Amino acid sequence: MTHDSSQAEPLFLFAEEAQELHELVPEALRWRCLIVDDDEGVHQSMVFAMNNLVVEGGLIEWLHAYSAREAYALLQREKDVALIVLDVVMEHEQAGLDLVKSIRTELKLIDTRIILHTGQPGFAPEITAIRDYDINDYRTKSELTRNHIFTCLASAIRTYRQIRSIEASRQQLRRIIQGGSALMSLEDDEAFARGVLEQFAAMLQVACAGLALLRQAGDVWADVRVLCATGARSAAQGLPLSSLLDADLTGACLRSLENQRAEWCAQGVALSIPARDGCVLSLYLDASALVRRQVDDSVLETFAAQFAACLDNRSLLARLHHDAFYDRLLGLPNRRCLSELLDARCAAGTQGGWVLALIDIDRFGEINEALGQTFGDALLRALGERLRAGVPAEAMLARLSADIFAVLGPQDCVLPETLLPMFATPLSVLGEESMVSVTMGLTRLVDVEASGGAAALEAGFQALRTAKSTQRGQLAWYTPEISRQTHDRVTLLTGLRTAMRAEGLFVVYQPQIALSDRRLIGLEALVRWRTESGEMIGPDRFIPVAEQSGLIREIGFFVLRRACSVLALLHGEGCQGLRMAVNVSAIQFRHPAFLAELRQIIGDSGIDPCCLELEITESIAMEDAVYVRETLDALHGMGIQLAVDDFGTGYSSLAQLKGMAVDRLKIDKAFVCDLDEAGADASIAGVVIQLGQRLGKEVIAEGVETEAQADLLKRMGCPEAQGYLFGRPMPLDDLRAWIRRSRAG
């Protein structure tokens, strides 16, 4: 580097002045600068020119390289180089620019500032090179006076410091976010506070010597105790804030609480982190004045905001956790909580001698509907209080659903004789006395063959369903046989669903004849199930399962479509006027889309609706609901015939029956089997026949198996019959053959 002697500025400092400046500089602050030049004189002149000069609060630490290759190797091993002063022309004309390219693209030193200089102005870099490689400055060596050197270096180092400060802030913010996410899920308050304090220390880059306090809404700060204390402050653990003898520390903490911002004192910094619910986390860390100068206030604000959000989220998580395990209305443990306790007991093998009781409030839905949800909720609260008071302390009380409670405890305290008396006296509900009855299912956990809480809970529900299937207000104990029956039903249901997809279900047809001349007058369509293995599953087994699962509606419409299609086919083959009877389940009949789907099926098949007969149960026929009456009237209006199946097995009102739009009464086969000559007229079959005659309803007897039964029914005035005597339920091809034989005979 050449020195212009015409510059008035001296190239050196007096020793006393240099010493004075040197003493003002913090020992830790040094800027590492690399001189890359093949001229030894440039190195010496640059160092001499900047000797002990303070730049951006620090002194320069020089590194030296005398070629581009040497500089590249040095930069591979040296870290935190703030500035490179680089000669353009060294080994060759582009050595300096090639090195700049390698620094930026290969070594990825993006923050490091670069000043180019050259003693050969003809080899000055192009503007594009200065722009593309982020070159901080360019000078000819003749321009490098002491003033220019200081100005260039100060500007470059200032830029480097700003870049590093921004990057440091970015890294601090990243650590803040990551730290908050990691700590948010901690349930223990002390562990959370300690973690935040450690994050605070890491952000400030100081040792974690401090304390944290957590004040709940409404607490007096002077009484709040130190939740955690670390490092040199660990002796403060558990002490109230008012008892700390360090006035400087407590003053900073209180000012931070009052001003809701970071407050520095001679020893360190206090920071308050408030949450929306009034909870405040107060932090204090020992930190030097140098740390204070290096920390950006915006970073502290961001830290406080991030962990304030963490406090809010912890509060939210606590509420969600409570809601996940406890019932909101009554505050009792819920099904999930009970299930986890059962899991824990089963895993530990301590379920022996324990009983689970499920208590179902009878007709709670009707109570809610009749008296309103407010009354229903009050009833549940009253019942919950009754159970809380009556259930022994060693047992757990839970609420599993709207109207089902559970009690889990030792078998000597969870027994019917201890639980049922709680429902023997009225409850006080909204100022009125109200009695409730309950159905109860009890399970000894040792009787449950499968392991785990889910299996124990399912056993409890199986016992409850068993009790409800007999009569409300009853109780039942779980047995392994109940579980096996449930398993069989589930297996049957799974197979039934498969059969519906794989056409395992099919329809057979049983002839209905006129007893006067044995003429075919109708058919009854009946569904059958053949498994893939060829086994026949009887309707008495799968129809109840279909009704419980809701599949009966889909099965019913399958039979109805197939029956109407076959009826249209038989009409086309000369069996004009032949009627087809199809059973309709209560679920299918009550469905809102029943009439629309029925019309669609009749329209698609093209049959005369007058030739279709729907068989409904006596319970549906006698139901006085408006929609039932309207549906029956609509069916009659379409010309469809209606028959009451298994008439006599239920309860019928003669007044209702007289005005009902039904055409035919079916005598159940059980009454046909009981017929004998002596008491024929007095038999139920005889009564039904006489009733039908008086009300103007047709009567058909089913289950006729002998000629004696047929003759007796004929003499009693029964016009129609069906049964094995005339023909078994047959597939379509067998039915056609039967029809041909009956015509030929």
Automatic annotation (TrEMBL):
- Look up and give the organism this protein is from: Uliginosibacterium flavum
Keywords, in A-Z order:
Phosphoprotein
Is Phosphoprotein found in the keyword set? yes
From what superkingdom does this record's organism come?
Bacteria
| Start and end residues of each GGDEF domain | 352-480
Q: What is the protein name given in its UniProt record?
A: EAL domain-containing protein
Q: Which Gene3D superfamilies match?
A: 3.30.70.270, 3.40.50.2300, EAL domain
What Pfam families does the record point to? DUF3369, EAL, GGDEF
Task: Cite the Response regulatory domain residue spans from the record.
Answer: 32-156
* Entry annotated with the keyword Cytoplasm: no
* Annotated ranges, domain EAL: 489-743
